[in-house]
Design brief:
Layout (H helix, E strand, L loop, with lengths): L5 H13 L8 H17 L2 H19 L10 H23 L3 H21 L3
Length: 124
């Protein structure tokens, strides 16, 4: 069941996702964005969660990677849409496969650690 308040989790996760990669990297956002997005995914049915998270990933990627990825014209949004679909798959998997809160916390920590490591390697 979709609760309107669950979209607050999505909005916060989307803003944090915007800052966890691309031109404006904040490493703490890499830790926190997956927590909010996974919580949103767990509060909603799989289809709603997947589509909403994909849209957030696409918006964040479109603006955060503008000027970083050297594509022009229609190729850039298509590339970002494909990337957003790939970035959404772990959240779909967490929504469908995770039934235990301990597993969810472990996935959050591992995903956050990976994003922090990746963002630490991005040139500032």
């Amino acid at each position: 069941m979709t609760d309107i308040y669950s979209f607050i989790w999505l909005a916060i996760g989307g803003v944090l996702r915007f800052f966890d990669f691309g031109r404006w990297t904040i490493p703490l956002a890499a830790w926190l964005a997956p927590v909010f997005l996974i919580h949103f995914a767990r509060l909603n049915d799989p289809l709603t969660a997947t589509v909403a998270i994909w849209l957030i990933m696409m918006l964040a990627g479109y603006f955060a990677l503008r000027g970083v990825i050297p594509l022009t014209g229609v190729a850039y949004p298509i590339f970002i849409a494909v990337l957003a679909a790939l970035w959404t798959l772990p959240y779909l998997a967490a929504r469908l496969l995770s039934a235990d809160d301990a597993e969810l916390r472990m996935w959050d920590a591992a995903s956050g650690a990976l994003m922090l490591r990746i963002s630490a390697q991005c040139p500032q």
